[in-house]
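Researcher: I'd like a candidate sequence for this fold, 155 residues long. If you have to choose between options at a position, lean toward the conservative one.
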């Protein structure tokens, strides 16, 4: 089981583990309603190295990005769910709109985002040694799940 840690602790763990020869992988997201697509992203991320650190948008950060009504699931619950997923070693919350400062602190060897992100849009790509665009599972996104729920409620 993973662990929820501070940004400061993420920095020290990253340095220590890299010193031990471990390859540090970082991915991030809102992970509002965990679904198969999220699990696949985490699996592909973990395959790229030894330690997977997941940056999790805080509630404040999510509201700034997604707007009113989000998040659906609070940050504490999302963090607990994420740390319980077998592929995740550490979860770190961040309040900013992007995880750039967190990535700068961790200095991951590998940065993973979904293939829906263009290379030029991937925040932190100037920091990591390698950037990987993970394959998406068609039909799985939190936005699509919310739309399905809204459609059911409206009928």
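Model: Candidate sequence:
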């Amino acid at each position: 089981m993973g662990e929820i840690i501070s940004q400061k602790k993420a920095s020290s763990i990253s340095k220590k583990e890299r010193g031990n020869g471990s390859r540090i992988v970082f991915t991030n997201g809102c992970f509002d309603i965990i679904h198969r697509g999220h699990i696949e992203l985490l699996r592909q991320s973990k395959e790229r190295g030894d330690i997977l650190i997941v940056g999790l948008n805080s509630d404040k950060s999510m509201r700034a990005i997604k707007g009113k009504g989000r998040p659906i699931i609070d940050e504490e619950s999302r963090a607990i769910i994420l740390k319980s997923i077998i592929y995740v070693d550490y979860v770190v919350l961040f309040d900013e709109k992007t995880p750039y400062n967190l990535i700068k602190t961790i200095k991951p060897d590998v940065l993973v985002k979904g293939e829906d992100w263009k290379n030029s849009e991937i925040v932190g790509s100037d920091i990591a040694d390698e950037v990987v665009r993970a394959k998406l599972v068609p039909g799985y996104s939190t936005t699509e799940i919310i739309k399905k729920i809204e459609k059911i409620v409206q009928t």
